[in-house]
Amino acid sequence: MHVALLYPPPFAIPPYGKIRPPQDALPPSGWNPSHRWAGDEISTPYGLMSIAAQLETDGILVTLLNLYTFSWEEVVSVLARLDADIFGLSCLTANRRGVEAVGRSIRRQHPNTCIVVGGPHVTALAQDTLRHWSWLDAVAVGEGESTFRELTARHRERKPFFDLAGLVYRSGGRIHAGPPRRPIGSLDSLVPPPVRFPINVFLSARGCPNRCTFCASPSMWPGRVRFLSAQAALDVLEHMVSQNRQRMISIKDDTFCCDRRRVLEICHGIQRRGLRFLWNCDTRADSLDEEVLEAMCRAGCRRISIGVESAAPEILSAVRKRLSPQTVVRATDMAKMFGFDIRYYMMAGNRGETAETLETSIAFLYEARPTSFVFSILSLYPGTEEFLMAERAGQADREMFFSSDLPVFKAFFKKKGGERLLSALQWVLDHQREKEFFQYSIGQRRRILRRLPDLPAAHLELGKAMLAAGECGRAETHLRAALKMGYPLPGPVWNDLAVSAAWQGQCQRAEKRLYRAFDTWPHPLVADNLDRLHQWRRSTAPPPLQPAGHQDLDRIAAIRQPAEPGPIHPEDLPNFSIAAQSGNGTEF
Length: 588
Description:
The chain has helices at 46-57, 72-80, 96-109, 120-124, 126-132, 145-156, 193-196, 217-220, 230-242, 260-272, 290-298, 313-318, 325-336, 355-368, 385-392, 400-403, 418-429, 442-451, 456-468, 472-484, 490-503, 507-520, 524-536, and strands at 2-7, 61-66, 86-90, 114-118, 138-140, 167-171, 174-177, 201-202, 205-206, 226-227, 248-251, 278-283, 301-309, 341-348, 372-377, 435-436. It is an alpha/beta fold.
């Protein structure tokens, strides 16, 4: 039994080679071929990796591939060499057209295989999807591990899918739905993906205690929030740090801090076990207090992302966001006492949005002063209350997900507001990518260090603030202190020490430090700094070397399979060989 689990591209990406893709899978109008793929969109969904981990534990031969940035020519070549009994495809709204194109190609090249699609998009549109996609055999609804394990067992024993819980399937030319599948009782019973794959993402809980109208989480994880036990979570983190050598981990729970006692137990456990790594998480402002923040800080957390959405009370009420702007400000001020990066997630275009409400949100950013923020415009996703309300009001139709080439469907602002609304909206559009905003002063960094004198990150961040102010000698004292105290990411620190040396005209010392940085942190920033330093030798001007920014720390390793769409190496995959080119020109 061989199962291939794939994360398809968003559409048929050029070049196409000899096989032209389906007309309805071409890039959307206005797509720029120089688009830079990055961020969470290119990462293999955690649920797909979890299914792979469970199947491998069952002794199933699994091929897990991320094809998100692969050209259509590469995708067709990969599929031709994957002879699997079952193909499982992960479908989000943004890649639904790519899923359809890949599914058609699989059916054409492997007519007798079983094709199953899962993910949040098809969970909400299971029967519609089967009606539109004639090549598709079944849709796994919601949480997929147990459903896929049972499906695989039945397929191996040549048993029908009749009444299989959590599955909507095609049989005898008709569409049938099995009963709803009960959520997995204990997440501790699952094999965590980081134990099977060298990834830096960890999901320690499923679900969210809140029911915001724009979010599809309740449709994927209905009922109460389920957690990995604190001890199980610590075991996974220890494996990631000790075995996988991860030094930067993203905890992707919807609301990491919603169980206060568990958060404290995890943070204190990280310290007791001597785990040295940096991490970030998403949470709500009303889940934070000084004790929790200090415990997180001492355990290595350096960035907290908070869903703020809006500062206008009428908008917060409309989307059922039970969080006041005053609570956000208090949480932000507390977090600044410990030197956290605080990122706000903001939204525009919610029901009732006007020029006044949007201006209120923009003004709030200048009042609260997070270290960074990112604005998004409300999108209508199947499985959300916003979509159901728009559908009932005749403002949206689920057929649009099968006929339109738009990757996502943005909500519309009311027309009233004129130039004032357009001006506010333009400000939002200019800030859709993450923007660094508030910066700590040297004085604030000194106060944080006095509060946390034994924290390597406090020394590092004071050193970086001094370096930015041109105080190179003092900066080096604190940067070296961070290294001596065991800061988990020495590469960026050596990069900043090289910047300090270069700014003082010490070329050879800067070069040695950059090579030390590159040994542990082969980041493009370091490579660029080396190029600039070598060019400086032919110039009298000081080299414009760049210190490591907070966003640079998000990527500390090369893109690689199966977590991201890196080159495919034949020796890493069972029964798979290919001689083609990956998107970056490397053989795979």
